[in-house]
Amino acid sequence: MSRSVLAAAILAATTALASSERGQLDASPSLFAVLAALNAAGYDAELESPNNHPLRAQIRQELAKKKVPSVAELKLFLEAHKQRNSTAELSQYISFALSADGPPDFALNMRTVEIPPDVAPLEGLGPLLAKFYQEADIEGLWNRSQPAFEQLIAKYHQPVTQAVLDVNTYLRSPTGNYLGRRFQIYIDVLGAPNQIQARSYGQDYYVVLTHSAEPQTSDVRHGYLHYLLDPLATKYAQDVMKKRGLSDFAQGAPALAEHYKSDFLLLVTESLIKAIESKLDRKREVVDEALKEGFILAPFFWEQLPVYEKQDQAMRLYFPELIAAVDVKKEEARLANVTFTSSARVRHAKVVPQVKKAEPVGAYKTLEEAEQLYSNRDLERAKEAYRRVLQQTADRPAHAKSYYGLGRIAILQKDPETAERLLQKVLESSPEPAVKAWAYVYLGRLADVSGEREQASSHYRNALATEGASMAARNAAQQGMEQSFKKP
């Protein structure tokens, strides 16, 4: 890299950090409130760990003294949404906190079709959190906790600033937030310690760090590299996918996580990140370890990066050349002699892979458009879109969603016979649990209107018995049951 280009990159990166460093490294009132509610309702993961921040115990004790009425409801909610382990348990609620508007209402700030997969089952949590927020005076707790957060942010400030500067300089990225995108780091003290959780939602990339003995700077840097490089793999996906035959070698790596084996773009990006990290840390062994774990293109990128370093383009412009330089036959010869390790390198922190919502294509894009048209009450165009889905795919769950949409439109257009027929077709089309439960609820309501009390009760019971039904659907079915019993 020429001296002038290097100087310009450093100046741009330093300017960007100076203007936004406090905002990019912060604490979140939404995350604080959600995790305070979890702790009050029985989230006890790793309470005995010496790496817990003292504030976690203080908040738990203060909430226990208050005897908050809504905690009983929160306990039931947590029990109904239990996950396979405490890391997954925390993960879904972090996703909710990042997806919601935050206090005092905790309403989800995105369209239904954009709600992350792990947040969708948490329907009904927002109003419950709003009640808890008021009853427990979480705003007061948040304000009194600021000195502790300020100390933690100060602890992270210098190493994080340096890590971001190093990446911006190496990739020649002019600014931390570019092209309307945002990179945000949140410090948390109420979750189990030693966790790093990353999320990519639309134009925003989040890294959430729970408390640890030392700043988890390398993980922040790793997340920042994803923030800058993930869009490049997506933008040039057609070029990257020309090399996807190499992914066959990754399938035989026992230590490689399944999401890398199934997503070649992510595997390529992670391989590039491993190579860049090895360059930044001047540790060639990082690449050797990465290859043995299954990051099959890490050695190629490590060998090719000196070529990038000697020219003047930023990585976002040079990336297509980097991918074009991959010689599939040469890499196949290299990978044929690799002995993959049976276990990944041990980490001290628990990492949850980033959640990245794939862009819908084909029938699923049409289905998304239909849902948006329905939300806007543009019923005729929504009806046309739902019908197109039936022609575009043979996928039965997609058909179920289309019939469900058409059934709701028929109800709005006061055509109960058509609505009932379409909702029955939903049940015949292998619907997802959420759609299945709501189909039963609507069928129950239609039966209620017709005076068929016994049939209505049967539909409501089926909705309540649907495993995986949302809390909102269960509540609607329960209300339907109660109203049916009250009617003469």
Provide keyphrases for this structure:
5 strands, five-stranded mixed sheet, Serine Threonine Protein Phosphatase 5, Tetratricopeptide repeat, single chain, 23 helices, alpha/beta
Q: Helix-strand pattern, N to C?
A: HEHHHHHHEEEHHHHHHHHHEHHHHHHH
Distance between the termini: 83 Å
DSSP helix count?
A: 23
Q: Count every beta strand, where a strand is a DSSP E run of 2 or more residues.
A: 5
What is the subunit organization of this protein? single chain
Tell me about the biggest sheet? 5 strands, mixed
Average predicted confidence as pLDDT: 85
Shape: globular
Question: How many structurally independent domains?
Answer: 3
Structural category is alpha/beta
The parts where pLDDT drops under 50 for at least 5 residues are 1-22, 354-359
Percentage of residues in strands: 5-15%
- Helix content, binned percent: 55-70%
Layout: helices, strands, pairs:
Elements (H helix, E strand, L loop, with lengths): L2 H22 E2 L2 H12 L13 H13 L4 H10 L5 H14 L25 H11 L2 H34 L10 E7 L6 E7 L2 E7 L6 H19 L1 H5 L5 H4 L7 H5 L1 H18 L3 H9 L4 H13 L4 H10 L3 H8 L14 E7 L5 H14 L3 H14 L3 H17 L3 H12 L5 H17 L3 H13 L5 H16 L2
Parallel strand pairs: 1-2, 2-4, 3-5
Antiparallel strand pairs: 3-4
Helix pairs in contact: 1-7, 2-5, 4-6, 7-8, 8-12, 12-13, 12-14, 17-18, 17-19, 18-19, 19-20, 19-21, 20-21, 21-22, 21-23, 22-23
